[in-house]
Design a protein that fits this description.
By secondary structure, this protein is mainly α. Helices cover 67% and strands 1% of the residues. A two-stranded parallel ribbon has the order 1-2. Helix 9 (192-208) packs antiparallel against helix 10.
Length: 271
């Protein structure tokens, strides 16, 4: 189901299949699920195309030659993407806990959260940071945007999800990642479009612990030329984000690092 939904919604069947295999069990893949995951994602994508449902197209105009210096820049960018993913996941769970502890009646949480979001939108005077934000994501590949775009989108998305509104974390994370990459282009000497594309997939990779799927997604969406850069950013983001995730039920099959394993053991003992 996850493979079919992800693959068809974004027009990335290969990434959808691998995402379904990666996201459930961190650090391990169940190979007996390969065939059903890939077939579901591919046929779901075919059905979507038969219904003539359009997908958003993104384009990276310039991808520089792979060099030691450029890979170093990609690693540096991946550090920021991983930190962003970690902060997003931690804050989302923290704010959700606050809503639950302060408002015991569940239907009242989205009501209060909606009022908070509406007030913020009125205060900043634009609806740019609510909804999917596809136009802004597209702009992030082509032109320099305000460096605070990712932070405002992150704040509003965290409040919205924590208050109880569900089904809206994937594309907002793409928005956050693309605009963060756009902002990083101010001091990281890689093309703006490339950094936006790297952020698009790397922040999501860190927030969901799915670096392979997100690397494949970058290749499907932006072209194979960016694959090395996207892969480096996704892997670095994956390790930097730790065992934090937007999915609270994600299972750790194998720790990313001994330090993370020790932290997880301490957390389980505390529980």
């Amino acid at each position: 189901a996850v493979a079919g939904g992800f693959g068809s919604v974004f027009g990335t069947p290969l990434a959808g299949a691998v995402f379904a295999l990666e996201f459930f069990l961190i650090g391990r893949i169940r190979y007996n699920a390969l065939y059903p995951a890939f077939m579901t994602a591919i046929f779901a994508d075919i059905v979507t195309k038969l219904w003539q449902t359009p997908h958003t197209h993104y384009q990276i105009d310039l991808v520089p030659n792979v060099s030691i210096l450029n890979i170093t820049y990609a690693i540096f960018a991946g550090l920021f993407f991983g930190l962003c993913a970690s902060i997003f996941s931690k804050l989302m769970h923290k704010v959700s806990h606050i809503f639950k502890s302060e408002i015991s009646y569940p239907p009242l949480r989205p009501f209060v959260g909606g009022i908070i979001v509406a007030c913020i939108v009125l205060a900043i005077g634009t609806t740019k940071y609510i909804g999917l934000g596809i136009p802004t994501i597209i702009q992030a590949f082509d032109e320099q945007l305000p460096s605070y775009d990712f932070a405002l989108k992150m704040m509003l998305t965290i409040i919205t999800l924590s208050a109880g509104f569900k089904g809206g974390e994937v594309t907002p994370l793409f928005f956050i990642g693309a605009t963060l990459g756009n902002a990083l282009s101010l001091f990281i000497p890689l093309p703006t479009g490339l950094l936006a594309g790297m952020g698009f997939v790397a922040v999501f990779a860190g927030a969901t612990n799915t670096p392979i799927a997100c690397t494949i997604m970058a290749i499907e969406l932006f072209g194979v030329e960016c694959g090395v850069y996207a892969g480096v950013a996704c892997i670095v983001s994956y390790f930097i984000s730790g065992h934090n995730s937007i999915y609270g039920q994600q299972i750790i099959g194998e720790a990313k690092h001994r330090r993370f394993s020790a932290q997880e053991g301490k957390r389980l003992n505390d529980l």
